[in-house]
# Entry
Amino acid sequence: MFGYYLDLAIRSFKRNRVLTALMVLALGLGIGASITTLTVLKLLSGDPLPQKSARLFTAEIDPLPAQGYVPGQTKPPWGNLMPYTDAMNLLRAHRAERQAAMALTQAKVTPARAGEHPFFSDAVMTTADFFAMFDAPFEYGSGWNAQSDDDSARVAVIAGFLNDKLFGGKNSVGQVIRINDHDYRVVGVLKDWSPQPRFYAVDLGGRSYGNGDAVFLPLKSARADDMDPQNVSCWQTADIQHLETAPCVFVSVWVELKHASDAAAYQTFLSNYVQQQISLGRFQRPEVVFPNLMKFLALEQVVPDDARLQTNLAFGFLLICIVNTVGLLLAKCLRRSREIGVRRALGATRRAIFAQFMVESGMVGIAGGVLGLVFAELGLWAIRHQPAQYAHLAHLDVSMFFATFVIALIASLIAGLLPAWRACVVAPAPQLKSV
Amino acid sequence: MEIQPILAALRKHKIPAALIVLEIALACAVLCNAVFMIGQRISEIHLPNAIDEQGVADIRVMGTDPKLATDDVPRNLAALRQIPGVTAAAVINTMPLTNNGWNSNVATQPQDVMEKDSPNVATYFFTSGGEQALGLRLLRGRFFTSEEFADSKLASNYIPTAHVMLITQSLADRLWPGQDALGKQVWVGKEIHFTVVGIIADVLRPNQNGEGLAAFHWAMFLPLSPGPGGFLNDYVVRTSPQDRARVIDAAKQKLAALSPNAVVRGISFTDVRDKFFATDRSMIWMLVLVCVVMLAVTAFGIVGLTSFWVGQRRRQIGIRRALGATRAHILQYFQTENFLLSTAGVATGMLLAFGINLYLMQHYQLDRMPWYYLPVSAIALWILGQLAVLGPALRAANVPPVVATRSV
# Structure
């Protein structure tokens, strides 16, 4: 029967070419817009470290003075930024499997070859556990150890693309690179590594999407060489040439727990730590937040409003296209009342008529999906030429490819319900009479 | 035109009529909000900024030894001023719309600085001649004197030791609504305060700082003399728009030659502004595109449905024509019918538009939509409906009266 319905559908399309083309075009446009925006939204709200994001947490504490504090309501205002002292205390306490403190900076890199100009690169000042904790893959060498942190050793890990630029992609472990007019010894070279979104940079003043960082240096050594954190906030006027002791926040701490269920224990430890600082007179506010990676991204609303707005808009548009398709399908099938009457008179059941029209709208859906795919590719191509940081990452993946057809089919079947129902309740007798 | 028979006919075609109403309602709701968002973005892009945007360029020198800045800065400035076409040059901590913000909470009383609602203000400091280099416009009071520049060094808290400041009109209105801000004190910390000596036309801050458009013009300016410190990187150079490209090239070359270890970049302010608003601009285009395509789809939907029921009613039309109705009557009939449907759609659409706006206000910090968006998009949809129905209606009007006799 299905084959027969298909044949009927194709005949009907041929009879009303313009109407059919309009339906397919409308559906295609709606689906193209939805898939384009969904792809972007999915790219932006993805899990940057799916294999362990449930075990990665960040600590948020509130160093602000008591003024303006409302117990139970005032959340840490600066996200996961905290003073250096507290970051070091948390690291030393060693209550998690792994823990690292980090801040972003700009590193001036001077190529060793004569005649080449120095340039600035995105850099991370951090501590030894960073690489293992975030599963950063190494091409050559490895990260540095805790001893290097304590000794302020001038060691560096560089990204693959910087290694290509400076050393032509060769194993550069042991080589020296000149950063901010000081010599650092390369201990590791990363493979391409740029988690999207770049969660660890979110409150540090870094871009959330885009290329990864180029240079990784021990926090203590970089600070000793006057490298300034990208984002500094102070709660009173402070001597910010000595940031480590100033009343300012500029580092964040991430921890990796053995099991996600250890979170409660760590949060208790964090609360106790803050209570202890309150009794020492350093802090006034006891609230702490201890979100895991995905919760942190949600708290910080990393996905740009524009992307969510566009998705809402696209689905509003798809709805309009579906209503439009309902109207056109209805027009088409009511026009065929006589044909339906004949078929009913020849013994076709209502169910058969209903099936016939659902097959027809399903075909409109498939055609709309194919066209939608074309529009989506066009849309994504346009987005890749936009100025947004994430623009160049906008590509259709396999799941969105299938999603296109699923959405198209669902949309067209929903659109086909009403016309098919109207068609199958057509009474055969009056139609035959008027032939 | 009799409306009664049209309503009677529509009652017989409830579902197609309801679909047209629904289509117009949805289009109206989306159109209102999309046009409103477009309007908001456009006004954001065109926010006034009282500096000489066409003539100003920013030359950034990064990676020099901060300890040598006391000598480097005057030397670099002298070199820049020698470039033909340069009318003024100065050093500033950061430029508007560069996303490199220096912000402070300020208050009119020392104890209020830490209060939650104390305004967060962008802080600019520039060296002597900065007001000419930027092209600031003084509204009241005065600019800084040379003594005030000379006496102001950068303290370890990265705030100049000056005692005077300029503030923008918007900030003056925020701090002292309805009062004269001249001569008043602005507190930046419990111990640090400045006297307002001049009020200048609104200058944009380096970034929006998440406090909405009202706060986008809250800025204060402090005088500074060159001294040690690594952050005085931005050389503001003013020239005429036609000399600008040449001056930027010359400035980059000169400063790079003077500091071979540094990284020197140059950009015109118009480029800075374009870059800052680039995402807003692409959002505007995307919204415009959606509106156009959506209206087209709606129009096609109306054409499709109307031509369907024109086809269905050929006989009825033929009878009417045979009974003496003119072509104009038939045309009018379909146009009135579409007008009635559009009106119902627009009425529903307005309620929907209002609801969507409330949702957006809650979730996306959007403002309340002004009322006049509703009638404007209503008119747009009425026109669209009339245009869409024109084709099928003309075809209906061309139905010859003889159809009535032939097929009965």
User: Anything to note?
Assistant: Chain A has a mean pLDDT of 90. The longest helix of chain A spans residues 350-384.
